[in-house]
Amino acid sequence: MSLHTWFAFFVACWVISLSPGAGAIASMSSGLSFGFRRGFWNAIGLQLALLLQIAIVAAGVGALLAASELAFSLIKWFGVAYLLYLGWKQWVAPAGDLATETVDARRGRPLALVLRGFIVNASNPKAIVFILAVLPQFLESTRPLLPQYLTMATTMVAVDLVVMAGYTGLAARVLRLLRQPGQQRLLNRIFGGLFGAAAALLASVRQATH
Predict the structure, then answer these.
(1) Of 26, 54, 77, 177, which is the most exposed, with the fewest CB atoms less than 10 Å away?
(2) How would you class 196 by CB atoms within 10 Å of its CB: exposed for 0-12, middle for 13-18, buried for 19 or more?
(3) DSSP per-residue letters across 13-47
(4) Going by C-beta distance under 8 Å and a sequence separation of 6 or more, which residues neighbour residue 121?
């Protein structure tokens, strides 16, 4: 991959990562609920799912999944259900969750947060279709493909990790400003509603016709 092509892809990665989506909502929710150091594990899970999606596309399986109506629908509706579940959990979370150390230890464990982030990204079939549409545009057919996919995967994950860390850290800073239960409850419900909106957007996604 030439430097010029890589730089174009690098810029595209920033645009893609900065665009609000379920991953950004999950990152901010984790930062609010658990603080930066603990909530950052959610971003790790997001990147593991992203690596899996890139590997699926690189292996050629992505095209099969994109073409399969059943596979597309199963992944999509699982993702919708999971986002609604996260939204409900955030909506009903006790106000004290944001300002005290009394968060549910099981939900705040690193492995649980990694799994949460992984499911949020992995259960979005639109991401596979999107990667399938974007990555080939930056591939140089005259050069070996594997090194190019590895370079793009490293670049995409590094950029997205920085952006999700920023979302997590920004939300964690807000955590310090919340002292009143009413403020905490309002923010919980805002993020619960955002998860619901993300679920509605995912539900509206239709498989591309061929």
Answers:
(1) 177
(2) middle
(3) HHHHHHS--HHHHHHHHHHHHH-HHHHHHHHHHHH
(4) 22, 23, 45, 46, 49, 50, 53, 127
Angstrom distance (rounded) from CA 150 to CA 166: 24
Show Cβ contacts of residue 109 under 8 Å, excluding neighbours closer than 6 positions: none
Cα 47 to chain centroid, rounded: 8
Cα separation, 40 vs 8, in Å, equals 28
Could you tell me the pTM of the whole model? 0.74
Q: Print burial letters for 11-47: b (CB count within 10 Å at least 16), e (below 16).
A: ebbeebbeeebbbbbbbbbbbbbbbbebbbbbbbbbb
CA distance 174 to 131: 33
Q: pLDDT (tens digit, 9 = 90+) per residue, 88-103?
A: 877 777 665 444 443 4
For residues 174 and 187, what is the distance between their CA atoms, to the nearest angstrom?
Answer: 10
Q: List, for residues 21-77, the tens digit of each pLDDT value.
A: 788 888 988 888 888 989 999 999 999 999 998 888 888 766 666 666 776 777 778
Instruction: Retrieve residue 197's tokens.
Output: 């909106």
158's CB contacts (< 8 A; 6+ apart) are none
- Tracing tokens 């999509």 back to the chain, one arrives at 76
Distance CA 39, CA 26 (A): 9
Per the listing, tokens 């996604």 go with 205
User: What is the Cα–Cα distance from 69 to 174, expressed in whole angstroms?
Assistant: 42
Side chain identity, residue 93: A
